[in-house]
């Protein structure tokens, strides 16, 4: 396929090729979250009766934690745990914790937060300077919004914007909630336990 072809566009043709052209009886497709999307599973892979392994996206993992299906205390004892949830009938969910990924995500988040704070401090300074200070709630908000969106960390900050002032603080509750899921991912598969332990 050409390099600019999206993964979802390649799945249907490859499913047919694997099943029909090669006559393979049992096939398990393994793909990332971008390739084996819910739509691909429903429209291409399910009707072809192929098994698959992929992973849940971050919001789906958060929902499992919120619903109590994935208890973070599981990882105090083990690095892998098989769980079930009614949103995934007939599927197996295997929750995993990777301490190296956990450390890397924490490092990356702190780096993004620190870089954002550096830029937000410049806005605070611009509002406080004596010569040509930054004024106007709309102008200040526009600059702050641009900074917060650049690194996608807006949810981790609270701001106070006025006509002649700007201040910010880290939202520690939001940061801690995200950090609790660092290193955790959930594999999702149609392969039953008898076919793959």
Give a short summary of the structure.
The chain is of the alpha+beta class and 197 residues long. Helices cover 43% and strands 17% of the residues.
Features:
single chain, 197 residues, alpha+beta, 5-stranded mixed beta sheet, 43% helix, 17% strand, elongated
Describe, in plain words, how this protein is organized in 3D.
The chain is an alpha+beta fold and 197 residues long. The protein has helices spanning 7-21, 38-45, 58-67, 99-128, 137-150, 172-179, and strands at 28-30, 51-55, 80-83, 92-97, 157-161, 166-170, 184-189. The strands form 2 sheets. The chain has a 5-stranded mixed beta sheet with strand order 1-2-7-4-3. Helix 2 links the parallel strand 1 and strand 2. The mean pLDDT is 89.
- Overall shape: elongated
- Total strand segments: 7
Question: Helicity range of the residues?
Answer: 40-55%
Count of helices? 6
The biggest beta sheet reads: 5 strands, mixed
């Amino acid at each position: 396929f050409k390099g600019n072809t999206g993964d979802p566009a390649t799945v249907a043709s490859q499913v047919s090729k694997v099943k029909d052209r090669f006559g393979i009886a049992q096939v398990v497709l393994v793909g990332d979250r971008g390739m084996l999307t819910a739509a691909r599973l429903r429209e291409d892979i399910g009707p072809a009766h192929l098994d698959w392994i992929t992973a849940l996206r971050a919001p789906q993992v958060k929902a499992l934690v919120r619903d109590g299906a994935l208890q973070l205390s599981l990882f105090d004892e083990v690095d892998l745990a098989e769980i079930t949830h009614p949103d995934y009938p007939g599927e197996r969910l295997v929750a995993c914790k990777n301490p190296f990924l956990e450390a890397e995500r924490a490092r990356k988040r702190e780096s993004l937060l620190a870089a954002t704070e550096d830029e937000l401090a410049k806005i605070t300074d611009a509002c406080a300077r004596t010569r040509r200070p930054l004024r106007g709630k709309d102008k200040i908000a526009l600059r702050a919004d641009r900074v917060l969106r650049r690194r996608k960390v807006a949810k981790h900050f609270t701001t106070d914007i006025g006509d002649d002032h700007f201040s910010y603080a880290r939202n520690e509750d939001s940061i801690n909630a995200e950090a609790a899921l660092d290193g955790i991912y959930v594999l999702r598969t149609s392969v039953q336990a008898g076919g793959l332990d």
